[in-house]
Amino acid sequence: MPYIHFTEEQKLRANAADLVEFLRFKGEPLIRSGPEFRMSSNHSVTVQGNEWYDHATEKGGGPVSFLKEFYGMNYQEAVLTLLSEDTGQLCPQVAAPKKKVKKEFALPPANDTNKRVFAYLLKHRRLDRDVLTAFVRMGLVYEDQKYHNAVFVGQDKDGVAHHAHKRSTNSQGKSFRMTVEGSDFRYAFNWPGHNSHLLVFEAPIDMLSFISMHTDGCWPKYSYVALCGTSSQPMLGMLERYPQIDTVHFCLDNDQAGQLATKRLAKLARDKGLTVDALVPVLKDWNEDLCANFQQSIEEQQNEQKLS
User: Cβ-count burial of 146 within 10 angstroms (0-12 exposed, 13-18 middle, 19+ buried)?
Assistant: First the structure.
């Protein structure tokens, strides 16, 4: 492509393009995640207004860099696309950005009971009751007051909350999940053990599902962390706070995103001199494995009753 000179006004217009509307125009399914949207084809990427961020690679930027990163365009192709959107029409633009003020972290007000959270996590997600009760008693899981979401709390060594991840408790229709604004990802949902092993998961429910599949009484000795995505910050935070950890077991999803994240995070752990390995679910994630095991157990019991 021959060199094209863009005016400053054109460059500003291109970088003010609304990425949410651009992706919708391109037919990219989007998943709402609080004030942001996640790409259906890549859950680690969030977009909001004219900004994007990849939680897996921990980098982001504006519309031009987005098209270069995810559409393989060069600078000139990206700017031309954002100015015309291949239709002769200007790409919708976001309003002039307001100065961002970092919101102070605060836990969502708790409901007076955890009935809906227990019902959802025990009956629909098939978590072990004793495991869930242990986390609830530690203040790590509770039901929020306003929407009855399940809240997964991330605490420091002194039990002070710095992170919270919310997930809807409806078992039908679209699910809702988001990280509470102001959260510090170094303290994402975790359980501090006493031995030298750390198990790393993508989501809080996956972490609780794995523990529910290994209820031999030894699980509290291990340390666990849910990345609430694929960022390295929660893992690195655990390694910093608990220097006795010398072995990291990666238990991420059995899909392309999980495999890529495992490789990236394992390299970070190896570079710190730690021993690493990977535990892979049979299905996509540990909750799918847990639910499948439960269903298999029910079917086996029914077959035994028929034979008796």
Answer: exposed
Farthest CA pair distance, the chain: 82
**CA pair distance 187, 140, nearest whole angstrom:** 12
Q: Are strands 59-61 and 141-143 parallel, antiparallel or unpaired?
A: unpaired
* pTM more than 0.90: no
pLDDT (tens digit per residue) in 89-143: 556 666 555 555 678 999 999 999 999 999 999 999 999 999 999 999 999 999 9
At residue 85, the pLDDT reads: 46
Q: Give the C-alpha separation, 47 to 66, whole Å.
A: 10
Query: CA distances (Å), 44 to each of 26, 119, 161, 257, in order?
Result: 19, 29, 24, 8
Q: What is the pLDDT of residues 135-146, one digit of tens each?
A: 999 999 999 999
168 contact partners, CB below 8 Å, separation of at least 6: 147, 149, 150, 175, 176, 177
Compute the distance between CA of residue 172 and CA of residue 135 in angstroms, rounded to an integer: 25
